[in-house]
Protein backbone atom coordinates (compact mmCIF):
# COMPACT_ATOMS: atom_id res chain seq x y z
CA UNK A 1 0.00 0.00 0.00
CA UNK A 2 1.16 3.48 -0.87
CA UNK A 3 -0.38 6.59 0.72
CA UNK A 4 0.46 10.10 -0.51
CA UNK A 5 -0.95 13.39 0.74
CA UNK A 6 0.67 15.98 -1.52
CA UNK A 7 -0.36 18.46 -4.21
CA UNK A 8 -2.01 17.32 -7.44
CA UNK A 9 0.93 18.32 -9.67
CA UNK A 10 3.48 16.14 -7.89
CA UNK A 11 0.95 13.30 -7.62
CA UNK A 12 0.54 13.34 -11.40
CA UNK A 13 4.30 13.53 -12.00
CA UNK A 14 4.89 10.62 -9.62
CA UNK A 15 2.26 8.36 -11.22
CA UNK A 16 4.76 6.22 -13.19
CA UNK A 17 7.06 5.79 -10.18
CA UNK A 18 4.24 5.04 -7.76
CA UNK A 19 2.61 2.57 -10.17
CA UNK A 20 5.91 0.68 -10.61
CA UNK A 21 6.36 0.58 -6.82
CA UNK A 22 3.12 -1.31 -6.22
CA UNK A 23 2.98 -5.08 -6.04
CA UNK A 24 0.23 -6.85 -7.93
CA UNK A 25 -3.04 -6.12 -6.14
CA UNK A 26 -1.44 -3.23 -4.23
CA UNK A 27 -3.43 -0.15 -3.34
CA UNK A 28 -2.56 3.52 -3.71
CA UNK A 29 -4.44 6.17 -1.73
CA UNK A 30 -4.01 9.75 -2.90
CA UNK A 31 -5.02 12.86 -0.98
CA UNK A 32 -4.13 16.53 -0.76
CA UNK A 33 -6.05 17.53 -3.87
CA UNK A 34 -9.15 19.55 -4.58
CA UNK A 35 -12.33 18.07 -6.02
CA UNK A 36 -11.55 19.85 -9.31
CA UNK A 37 -8.21 18.00 -9.53
CA UNK A 38 -9.32 14.46 -8.66
CA UNK A 39 -10.22 13.40 -12.22
CA UNK A 40 -6.84 14.45 -13.63
CA UNK A 41 -4.95 12.71 -10.84
CA UNK A 42 -6.99 9.51 -11.22
CA UNK A 43 -6.50 9.59 -15.01
CA UNK A 44 -2.71 9.80 -14.61
CA UNK A 45 -2.74 6.60 -12.55
CA UNK A 46 -5.24 4.84 -14.79
CA UNK A 47 -2.89 5.59 -17.71
CA UNK A 48 -0.30 3.55 -15.78
CA UNK A 49 -2.67 0.57 -15.67
CA UNK A 50 -4.17 1.07 -12.22
CA UNK A 51 -7.87 0.49 -11.65
CA UNK A 52 -9.94 3.24 -10.05
CA UNK A 53 -11.65 1.90 -6.92
CA UNK A 54 -12.95 5.14 -5.39
CA UNK A 55 -12.83 8.51 -7.17
CA UNK A 56 -13.22 10.38 -3.88
CA UNK A 57 -15.98 12.74 -2.83
CA UNK A 58 -16.38 16.21 -1.40
CA UNK A 59 -14.15 19.25 -1.43
CA UNK A 60 -11.02 17.28 -0.43
CA UNK A 61 -11.40 13.85 -2.10
CA UNK A 62 -9.29 10.82 -1.33
CA UNK A 63 -8.71 8.78 -4.50
CA UNK A 64 -8.11 5.04 -4.24
CA UNK A 65 -6.68 2.88 -7.04
CA UNK A 66 -5.47 -0.72 -7.25
CA UNK A 67 -2.70 -2.36 -9.25
CA UNK A 68 -3.67 -5.30 -11.48
UniProtKB/TrEMBL annotation:
Protein source organism: Sphingomonas daechungensis
Protein known as: 50S ribosomal protein L11 methyltransferase
Coiled-coil region(s): none
Biological-process GO terms, alphabetical: methylation
GO terms, molecular function: methyltransferase activity
Keywords assigned by UniProt, alphabetized: Methyltransferase, Ribonucleoprotein, Ribosomal protein, Transferase
Lineage: Bacteria, Pseudomonadati, Pseudomonadota, Alphaproteobacteria, Sphingomonadales
Keyword Transferase: yes
InterPro entries according to UniProt: SAM-dependent_MTases_sf (IPR029063)
Superkingdom, natural source: Bacteria
Any one Pfam family match given in the protein's UniProt record, by short name: PrmA
Gene Ontology, cellular component aspect: ribosome
Secretion signal span: none
Amino acid sequence: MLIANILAGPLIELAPTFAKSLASGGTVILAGLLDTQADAVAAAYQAQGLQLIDPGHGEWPVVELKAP
